[in-house]
Design a protein that fits this description.
two-stranded parallel sheet; Rossmann fold; 2 domains; 9% strand; 7 strands
């Protein structure tokens, strides 16, 4: 029986935070280890180019994210780990999709609407973001895309674009339609992990707790969690705490420490540190051997390219340029 295909990516825009981890990356590891899927995990460096225009920073972030992937337990023997820009089929397929997708349709994307609402001058890369993402997903005949809630619309765009292509070109190959329709996989309880100010945890809000944070960084972040004394319990502390401990365990702790925010924050610091410490130490070991990390990405690129270029050939025949 052939396994289902699973794919997901993360942008190398800086250190991943616990929102990225609980919302998406932890699922990557669990689903990989389930043995039920053929897995592809990549570094979305061309998507990150919308935010980073500094070669040194891009190189550093990309390598760091590859180390992060290995440190959380993505085994390159079991999964294909690669960098988006190494596979030129992604941008080539993006162009092909560009010719099918309309401007009003892309104007409905949340990320574009948010940028516009903030009065930002939106570049074409940001406008086109969902189309490149559709190419990322559809090139590998992906069945399942594990992501946080904020990426749900993007996976829906990928489905729509697959359907549009299949309809436009008859889309028939000997195996069926050209593109499979992917499904998002979102864990409801961690679909949107809150940050230290209660809003969605996000690098752009500066409200994150880094996944590989030092003890000092954890202390600083937790001490600056915004507390609100109006409710039964300090919701912003509690909502982060429940990522690390079950609610049954937390209830007596919060009951015994009503109004004692300093105690609760101390307990949270200990719990986060106990969780992060082994990850941090494992990461520090892996970071000593950058050559090995480059080798992992090179081997991953070769494997990804074999699949992606074959798929692009099919697409090129279907649209009549081959
Ligand atoms: P990125 O790099 O912004 O985020 C990586 C993953 O982390 C999830 N996430 C969260 N989940 C829960 N709570 C939060 N506060 C939180 N913040 C981030 C995101 O939902 C995401 O799953 N566009 C993607 C990268 C990408 C991609 C793809 C993903 C490019 N091509 C193809 C899947 C398939 C992104 O910017 O993720």
């Amino acid at each position: 029986m052939t396994k289902k295909t699973l794919l997901s990516g993360v942008k190398p825009t800086g250190r991943p935070h616990i929102g990225n981890y609980f919302g998406a990356m932890r699922q990557f590891v669990e689903l990989l280890n389930s043995g039920d899927y053929s897995c592809y995990f990549f570094i979305a460096d061309y998507h990150a180019l919308n935010f980073i225009q500094n070669a040194e920073e891009m190189r550093r972030n990309t390598l760091d994210l590859a180390i992060d992937y290995l440190a959380i337990g993505l085994d390159p023997k079991k999964a294909v780990l690669f960098k988006q820009s190494d596979i030129s089929a992604h941008t080539e397929l993006c162009w092909i999709f560009d010719t099918l997708v309309t401007v009003p349709y892309l104007m409905r994307a949340h990320a574009f609407k948010d940028a516009e609402a903030k009065g930002k001058e939106v570049n074409v890369g940001t406008f086109n973001y969902p189309v490149l993402m559709a190419a990322d997903i559809l090139l590998y005949d992906t069945d399942v895309v594990p992501v946080g809630q904020d990426q749900k619309q993007h996976v829906e765009y990928a489905r729509d674009i697959a359907q549009k292509f299949n309809n436009a070109f008859g889309g028939r190959t000997s195996e069926g339609c050209t593109f499979k329709l992917p499904e998002p996989k979102i864990l409801e309880s961690v679909a949107t992990v809150p940050g230290i100010d209660g809003r969605k945890m996000s690098k752009s809000y500066g409200n994150t707790i880094p996944l590989f944070a030092s003890r000092e960084e954890i202390e600083k972040a937790v001490m600056s969690i915004v507390t609100d004394s109006s409710g039964e319990l300090p919701a912003n502390v509690y909502n982060i705490h429940k990522l690390f401990r079950s609610e049954e365990e937390l209830k007596p702790l919060y009951e015994a420490n009503k109004g004692k925010y300093a105690n609760l924050k101390k307990a949270l610091i200990e719990d986060i540190d106990a969780f992060i410490k082994p990850l941090r130490e494992h990461r520090a070991e892996l970071a000593k051997n950058e050559k090995k990390v480059h080798e992992v990405l090179a081997a991953g690129a070769e494997r990804a390219n074999a699949i992606a270029s074959k798929k692009l050939e099919v697409v090129k025949k279907t649209i009549g340029v081959k």
